[in-house]
Amino acid sequence: MTKPPLTLYLAAPRGFCAGVDRAIKIVEMALKKWGAPVYVRHEIVHNKFVVDGLRDKGAVFVEELSECPDDRPVIFSAHGVPKSVPSAAQARNMIYVDATCPLVSKVHIEAQRHADAGLQIIMIGHAGHPETVGTMGQLPEGDVLLVETPDDVAAVDVRDETRLAYVTQTTLSVDDTADIVAALQARFPAIIGPHKEDICYATTNRQEAVKTMAPKCDAMLVVGAPNSSNSKRLVEVGARAGCGYAQLVQRADDIDWRALEGISSIGITAGASAPEVLINEVIDAFKARYTVTSELVETAQENVEFKVPRVLRQPA
Ligand code: 10G
Ligand code: SF4
């Protein structure tokens, strides 16, 4: 049987960002330096394949520091942690390595700096997401106000309208965040913030590539996990940019071939925590069913790299 033709658009940039790359390296190097088991507080990045692979090498994933023994090293995930977490590790004399992405740490420092200047902070983020919990946890409980939508901005109850600053999660939708920032600036003209928001280069670039790719595609797949905020935003961005079918898949097994019947083009991208091997698996699944012509949709080139912490660069 001859295979039907299919144009496969591949977004670039896609997949691993510099913060994810560094966080995974930190766990691998910690395992080499200290041997197994090394504990990791929260999924190092939101990807089951990555987590399972590290577990096989001896990493033990837990949600809370209280689940770790005192005498084994612990790593904090790339999403960041409240200040109380390293403090508790210190109090227990534990060896810990913070794999928080430097771009998230930058937001933590920003929040602290605003608070030191006497400003009350409003965070734009998703309630309960570990990055939001970590950033809000840089300051005492209740000090940081959270808004998720422009409606939340209308309802927020601030201490002093003239002494406010905002910070954001790094993986939000660029467009939705612009609306929330505009609502904040309209209600609180004196509010201080970053140049635009704290959304990182990787989030911005992946969303931009999807915006360019989506209108060309009959359908679009985002390789990523259901708990991956940045991956879910890519699905939304694709749908909003005009792609009639945009779906998150963890790997090739998740593809709903029925839903794709009759397509002549497919767009593929991946969230910042999805490894390239899973993207290739998805591409190969299309190649098995279609005569594929591939086209790269490249809207930016990335060359960001972050160093691992010094403790891992030194011999044990
Ligand atoms: O997109 P989220 O924040 O859910 O995380 P992820 O692990 O899927 O991707 C990498 C992004 C971070 C580590 C948060 S800055
Ligand atoms: Fe860092 Fe951005 Fe990657 Fe988050 S998504 S780990 S902020 S580079």
From TrEMBL:
Q: Which residues bind (2E)-4-hydroxy-3-methylbut-2-enyl diphosphate?
A: H46, H79, H129, T170, S228, S229, N230, S273
What is the catalytic activity of this protein? isopentenyl diphosphate + 2 oxidized [2Fe-2S]-[ferredoxin] + H2O = (2E)-4-hydroxy-3-methylbut-2-enyl diphosphate + 2 reduced [2Fe-2S]-[ferredoxin] + 2 H(+); dimethylallyl diphosphate + 2 oxidized [2Fe-2S]-[ferredoxin] + H2O = (2E)-4-hydroxy-3-methylbut-2-enyl diphosphate + 2 reduced [2Fe-2S]-[ferredoxin] + 2 H(+)
Q: Where does dimethylallyl diphosphate bind?
A: H46, H79, H129, S228, S229, N230, S273
Per the record, the pathway is: Isoprenoid biosynthesis; isopentenyl diphosphate biosynthesis via DXP pathway; isopentenyl diphosphate from 1-deoxy-D-xylulose 5-phosphate: step 6/6; Isoprenoid biosynthesis; dimethylallyl diphosphate biosynthesis; dimethylallyl diphosphate from (2E)-4-hydroxy-3-methylbutenyl diphosphate: step 1/1
Listed binding positions for [4Fe-4S] cluster are C17, C101, C200
Q: Does the keyword Transferase apply?
A: no
One of its GO biological process terms is:
dimethylallyl diphosphate biosynthetic process
The residues responsible for catalysis, as annotated, are E131 (proton donor)
Q: How is the cofactor bound?
A: Binds 1 [4Fe-4S] cluster per subunit.
Identify the keywords attached in UniProt to this record, alphabetized: 4Fe-4S, Iron, Iron-sulfur, Isoprene biosynthesis, Metal-binding, Oxidoreductase
Query: Per the database entry, which stretches of residues form a coiled coil?
Result: none
Q: What class of enzyme is it?
A: oxidoreductase
Alphabetized InterPro entries for the sequence: LytB/IspH
- Positions with a binding annotation for isopentenyl diphosphate: H46, H79, H129, S228, S229, N230, S273
Which cofactors must be present for this protein to function? [4Fe-4S] cluster
Q: Which family does it belong to?
A: Belongs to the IspH family.
Instruction: Report the function annotation for this chain.
Output: Catalyzes the conversion of 1-hydroxy-2-methyl-2-(E)-butenyl 4-diphosphate (HMBPP) into a mixture of isopentenyl diphosphate (IPP) and dimethylallyl diphosphate (DMAPP). Acts in the terminal step of the DOXP/MEP pathway for isoprenoid precursor biosynthesis.
Could you tell me what this protein is called?
Answer: 4-hydroxy-3-methylbut-2-enyl diphosphate reductase
What organism, scientifically named, is this protein from? Answer: Sulfitobacter delicatus
Q: What is the lineage of its organism?
A: Bacteria, Pseudomonadati, Pseudomonadota, Alphaproteobacteria, Rhodobacterales
Q: Which gene encodes it?
A: ispH
